[in-house]
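Supplementary Text 2. Reproducibility record for the structural model of the 72-residue chain.

All settings were left at their defaults, and a single model was retained for analysis rather than an ensemble. We include the record here because the model underlies the residue-level annotations in Supplementary Table 4.
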Amino acid sequence: MKLIPICLCLSLNCLVMAAYAADDDFDMDVCIQETVRDCQESVCIQGSNSDCLQQCQKDAEEKCAELSKQSL
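Retained model, structure tokens:
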């Protein structure tokens, strides 16, 4: 059953990425914050261990770094 929230998170992240790809004023910090928040809300269960939060942070940093390269 973990597949559904992960797919949802990926879909939300794709929407975030599409919005940033069209934005001339890319802000890495804002990208990471919003991506982590979306991941936490859709994947991490309230009171879950920190592994989920750390994975959201790591994934957000990687995705936003890739977006940063694309926006150049």
